[in-house]
Amino acid sequence: MDKVVQKLVSRVLERHMENLREELTRSVLEELDRERDKAGKPGSAATDGLFKAVSAIHAVTAQRDVLRALIDSTAPYSGRTALFVIKGGTATGWHGHGVSDSIKDFSLDLTALALVRVLNSRQTFAGSSSEMDGKFISQFGGPADPACVIVPLILKEKVAAIIYADSGHEQRGALDRSALELLVLVTATWLEVTAGRKPAGREAGHESDVPIARGAAAQAGGSFSDPFAAHAPAFSHATAVTADVERIAAGARANLSGISEEDADVHRKAQRFARLLVDEIKLYNQAKLLEGRKHKDLYDRLKEDIEKSRATYQKRYGSTVAGSADYFGQEVIRSLAEDDVVLLGSNFPGYTK
After folding, report:
1. In DSSP terms, which residues pair with 125 in a beta bridge?
2. Residue 206: helix, strand or coil by DSSP?
3. How far apart are CA 145 and CA 168, in angstroms?
4. Which member of 2, 103, 156, 239 has the greatest number of CB atoms within 10 A?
5. What is each CA distance from 89 to 98, 276, 302, in whole angstroms?
6. Nearest Cα to Cα of residue 270 among 337, 210, 230
7. Which of 152, 179, 158, 3 is nearest to 76 (CA)?
């Protein structure tokens, strides 16, 4: 029945895609005109430029093409733009304009003040580039005007990427926050629409209900196709995560040699699921994580997130053969507290100094 429904949804969406594209473009531009009228500003040239930009984004449906169209369309509204993929707790360069190709191998420091604000609030940051990652400014140079904008690209209610923009190295270069936010919003909406054209099936046993960002961590199952799946920097935290999961799995194979392969597989899936949940906590609580380790009260600062994730883990694996292993609690200590339970504080369940 799932396959039948998927085919029907895909067929209906395909049939109406052209009308949907036109309707979205028209609605966006009408709303833009209304906002300009309220402000008493003429629309003409500015609106025409945005119309062309929105049309360029809607003219393609392959996700990578949509994202490239987004970056290309920002050229009139910023001196330089760079898109960074959020995956596995890192932000790595994917594509840009006005920056060198080396952006594709550059990883941002997610503890930088501006980036922490964007990831925690999921809102645009508009401020000084001095609050951006210092390594980025050092490698690619600072803008002539110190102002910058960082816009989150949100998919399925998660930050999948961030778009950094500034006026570039030239004096009086462009930097139009409103236009950039509009283009990113249009792109996110269009990606959501096009993702529904060919729904992906769900295999039994996949961790498809994990509330993780598509592009923020490895996705298992679900109906969203990661547009950044092929993007893999030479080395990143994501690489370390994969290696770590394999290490844990290898240990499980050794430690679970006395049970059936079917039960051992459940244990391995529970370990991976715990890792995904804890990675999600780390990704969206960078500031709290640093402060909690410093003051040794991680659990108090992250209690709500930890307990929600614990409940999700228990719902999935609490009544299975892996239920007594408490892989989630182990992962909280290993990953959040860096194997030092003292950093979690005395209120952490099972705390022993």
Report:
1. 150
2. coil
3. 8
4. 103
5. 26, 11, 17
6. 210
7. 179
| pTM score of the predicted model | 0.52
Strands (E), 203-303: none
Contacts with 139 (C-beta within 8 Å, 6 or more apart), sequence order: 102, 106
Residues in the chain: 353
Which phi and psi angles does 127 have, rounded to 5°? -170, -150
Q: What is the pLDDT along the chain (353 residues), one digit of tens a residue?
A: 555 555 565 566 555 555 655 566 556 656 655 555 554 554 444 667 787 888 888 888 888 888 999 999 998 899 999 999 988 778 889 989 888 888 888 888 888 888 888 988 889 999 998 888 888 988 888 888 889 999 999 987 788 999 999 998 877 778 899 889 989 988 988 888 777 654 433 333 333 332 223 343 333 334 445 555 555 444 333 333 334 434 444 444 445 556 788 888 889 888 888 888 888 888 778 888 889 999 999 999 999 999 999 998 999 899 998 888 889 999 999 889 888 889 999 999 866 55
Q: Which residues of 226-236 are buried (b: 16+ CB within 10 A; e: fewer)?
A: bbbeebebeeb
Tokens encoding 85:
């993929």
Alpha carbon 344 to chain centroid distance?
26
Cβ-in-10-Å burial (0-12, 13-18, 19+) of 33 comes to middle
Pairing mode, strands 80-87 and 90-97: antiparallel
Q: Could you tell me if 300 and 345 are in contact, meaning their C-beta atoms sit under 8 angstroms apart?
A: yes
Backbone phi and psi for residue 80, each to the nearest 5 degrees, phi listed first: -150, 150
Name the β-bridge partners of 155. Answer: 158
Q: Which amino acid type is present at position 162?
A: I
Q: Determine phi and psi for 205, rounding to 5 degrees.
A: 95, -10
Residue carrying the six token digits 């705390």: 351
Amino acid of residue 32: L
Q: With H, G, I as helix, E, B as strand and everything else as coil, classify residue 277.
A: helix
C-alpha distances in Å from residue 295, one per residue of 120, 298, 302, 345: 20, 8, 13, 9
Q: What are phi and psi of 128, to 5 degrees?
A: -90, 140
